[in-house]
Amino acid sequence: MTFNMLLFTTATIILIIVSILLAYSLVRAYWRLARRQENRDQPRSGLILETVWTLMPLGLLAVLLILTFQAI
Fold first, then answer.
1. What is the pLDDT of residues 26-72, one digit of tens each?
2. How far is CA 43 from CA 33, 36, 47, 53, in A?
3. SS3 sequence, the chain?
């Protein structure tokens, strides 16, 4: 296995792990929001902003993975 393939494989594994952790945190945030729905007088807690802020690192890792693959 060449160094480039090792680097690509490592980047792919990191992307998968981070994707799983981000999906877990988003699902947990939605569960928390669903439990708070009984108090509808409270304003929405910025769930859209939190979702975008959480998905930004995933996009960055995907771009880095593509660039790594093209460099091989």
1. 888 878 877 776 666 555 667 778 778 878 888 888 888 888 888 77
2. 11, 11, 11, 19
3. CCHHHHHHHHHHHHHHHHHHHHHHHHHHHHHHHHHHHHCCCCCCCCHHHHHHHHHHHHHHHHHHHHHHHHHC
| Burial of 52: CB neighbours in 10 Å, binned 0-12, 13-18, 19+ | exposed
61's tokens: 């890792």
User: Which amino acid does the sequence have at 58?
Assistant: L
Residue 29: both structure tokens together? 């945030």
Which single residue is written with the structure tokens 């960055």?
A: 60
Picking from 8, 1, 20, the residue whose alpha carbon sits closest to that of residue 72 is 8
CA–CA dist 65, 53 (Å, integer): 20
